Amino acid sequence: MYKIGIVGGTGYTGAELLRLLANHPQVEVVAITSRSEEGKLVSDIYPSLRGHYNLRFTTPSVDELAQCDLVFFATPHGVAMDQVPELIDRGVKVVDLGADFRIKDTVEWAKWYGMDHRTPDYVAKAVYGLPEINRDAIKTAQLVANPGCYPTATQLGLIPLLEAGIIDPAHLIADAKSGVSGAGRGANVGSLLCEASESFRAYGVAGHRHLPEIKQGLQAVTDSPVGLTFVPHLVPMIRGIHSTMYATLIDTTVDLQSLFEARYKGDFFVDVMPAGSLPETRSTKGANFCRIAVYRPQGGDKVVVLSVIDNLVKGASGQAIQNMNIMLDLPENMGLTALGMMP
Question: Fewest beta carbons less than 10 Å away: which of 46, 200, 212, 239?
């Protein structure tokens, strides 16, 4: 039985880690931290976990966390970079659900996150945790940077086309929508029911923090410069991401359906749907799946890819556990086979 720690257990991703790990047969959560809720029972904060955990929140302690085999960081950016190095040096494996180790160019990271990166050496050591792309590197990694939610849905939709070299990489468009939980659990006027309900708006049009992460991932699979227009939107639902991607084909002879099916044939958590399907976010609610459909409208030179995930599962905590399984040499889908909730 592997011992697991969670730093930052009171946000949505921390709570989702607890929910999913409660049914994992090979791990035990032995430490969960929160400065604001220190001393309180986990089940008092999250009654849905009553009967599954008898843990209390504690103040983060390297000595306590160093007793774990693996530690998840479900913290805002800027936190993990200060605490992870000592854990790594003491032999603990780490999966960071935040953004501290995702972008390899730390100058670019500082531009988007508004602070200097204090541990650039560990950024260089980190493996980007998109299993469908970096599975082999994740197996031997000690530090994994868990991808963001928008980057997960968007990269999984575009990478097969870029790998095959059949689209123009300089002119890509990703039009993405997210449920309100993507904004986190902290108090925010824009996330209030009266503000978000019965409304639909774009944000981050001039530039969003996930843009450099997405471009970095796409650039890794093509030799040509990637140009991406990425526009996120907030929609009045709790969970889910729908990314609609557009690209121009430079080879119209390829069977796109067969290409996607072959690319993801061995990937348990990517479901390439039958031709003509329209994936819905609700089909992935609570589950670690990405569902994808590909179209070539009117048989022209444009390709449209539809990609849906649960932003808190495949877009965050579920994918983090998927990475944990790979790092601990467990079956990749262990503890993650739950199906989407309907309705």
Answer: 200
Q: Do domains 2-125 and 150-311 have the same CATH topology?
A: no
Average pLDDT per block of 10 residues along the chain, 343 residues long: 94 95 96 91 93 92 95 95 96 98 97 96 97 98 98 98 98 97 77 85 94 98 97 95 98 97 97 98 97 97 98 98 98 96 83
The reply to whether 149 belongs to the active site is yes
Distance CA 128, CA 272 (A): 23
> Which residue in the list 68, 149, 194, 290 is annotated as catalytic?
149
Architecture of domain 150-311: 2-Layer Sandwich (3.30)
pTM score > 0.85 for this model? yes
Q: What is the distance, to the nearest Å, from the Cα of residue 178 to the centroid of all Cα atoms in its chain?
A: 13
Which residues 6+ apart lie within 8 Å of 168 measured at CB? 247, 248, 249, 250
